[in-house]
Amino acid sequence: MFFAPRRRPRVQAPEPADPGDEGSTTRWLEDLARGDVQALDHLYRREADRVYRYALAVCGNTAWAADATQEAFVALATRPEGFDPARGALGAYLAGVARHALSARWRELRREGPLGGGAEAPPDAADAAADAPPGADVEAAASPETLLVRAQEVQALWAALRALPVVFREAVVLVDLQERSYVEAAQIAGLELNTLRTRLHRARARLAELLGAGAGAPRAQGVSK
Amino acid sequence: MKSSPVGHTTLAQALEALREDLAAQPPPPPSVLAGARRAVRRAGRTSGAAVPQNSPGSRVQRLLGRLGWPAGEPNEGWGAWAGAATLVGVLGLSGGLALRPVPPAPGASPVAVAGASGGGLHAAAADEAGMPAMHFVPLVSPERVRALADAQGSGDAAGSETPAWVVTTEMPQERLAAIGLPYDPARAAERVRAELLVAASGEVLAVRLLF
User: Domain extents for chain A?
Assistant: First the structure.
């Protein structure tokens, strides 16, 4: 089976926060600290999708991803002082909290025994594929057969990604799928920069092996990305 | 080499496909934001740091907090007043709706059931101008009347009992026999004016004749 690349434009990297945006973030955070729900709404609209999709890509379970996202925003709402702008962007902080929530959940499952699975065996990749909105990326000219084949291919790709150890998978999700900078990805994963780069390199190699495509791996990205 | 799930695709293409698929995923469910909002409100209610301790709003906030009612934004003391006004309005409206009985027939007027005493009911309805009237004669058991009076006295708006209504009507005299009152058979066909004390359920609780 040949996986045909799509013709859709490449997903744009999230726009970097401009100074005005940073100012509004600070103001919303101050308002949030005073209990302003509207400030939460602003921050949520801006950050929630990326946090949720990061969690979803890592764990493959919509319910877990939703819980982790909620925990991140609850943490921000109840302890806004926990976010230090000097240490990174708000999105990175929220993703870090979500990651912590997912890790805690996996630890719980590991303690619960065989039924819970293990840290390296998060919920089935099929969950995410099944949860994907039908026809979410439908192109007008695509025939049903084409769409079906494409959906199966994407599902197989997710399965391959989730076959990676969590720490490798996470690196791929953060850098390659969400196009975060190495610095931000390292911050979210709680790693040294070099550790992240090493993991990413190994993760790509493993993924390429799983896909049977040793060539064509993305070039290493600079730290300044 | 292991079998590939996607044939000869390159890693770059695979990542591109995954990236697009991830971006196409729906946003988090609305419950996520709702849960975070609740946390903000809880945090605002428990911290209360920005509310002046002696402001009127802070007192209302404490009251609402004891009632388990979200106190609104703690940085605006008057916001709590608005919350209190809303609370009062909602309670008043809901109470009014709950107390609203079945629409009465034309000529009906609400009464306060005072309970059974001395063998008859005392209704507060205004008599027809210049019309002498007897006391209400109960047509139900005293327990039923007491229950109705108690429910009304305790303001049990949400209860099953609602105020009774007085409905003015006319009926043949022979009907008086049915309620245990004497009547003149020679005038059985004549009609008499009467007031019926009717519960919201339609049950006739008592009757009195108007002369």
Answer: 22-120
B113 & B198 share domain: yes
Residue B94 maps to a domain? yes
The greatest distance separating any two alpha carbons of chain A, rounded to the nearest whole angstrom, comes to: 56
Which residue in the set A2, A6, A74 is minimally distant from B17, CB to CB? A6
CB pair distance less than 8 Å for A133 and B26: yes
Which of B5, B36, B74 comes nearest A44 by C-beta?
B36
Specify the number of domains making up chain B: 2
Note whether B142 and B91 are same-domain residues.
Answer: no
Contact B12 A2 (CB under 8 A): no
pLDDT digits (tens, 9 = 90+) for B150-203: 766 555 444 444 567 788 888 887 777 776 777 777 777 788 888 888 877 777
Question: Following CA atoms A19, A20, A25, A30 in sequence, which dihedral angle do they give, to the nearest 10 degrees?
Answer: 110
How close, in Å, is residue A118 to chain B by CA atoms?
24
Residues B95 and B119 occupy one common structural domain: no
User: ipTM of the predicted structure?
Assistant: 0.72
In a domain, B180, yes or no: yes
Q: Provide CB contacts within 8 A for B39, sequence distance 6+.
A: A73, A74, A77, A78
Q: How far apart, in whole angstroms, are the C-alpha atoms of residue A1 and residue B4?
A: 9
A57 in contact with B at a CB cutoff of 8 Å? yes
pLDDT digits (tens, 9 = 90+) for B96-153: 555 454 455 555 555 545 444 433 344 333 344 444 566 777 777 777 777 777 766 5
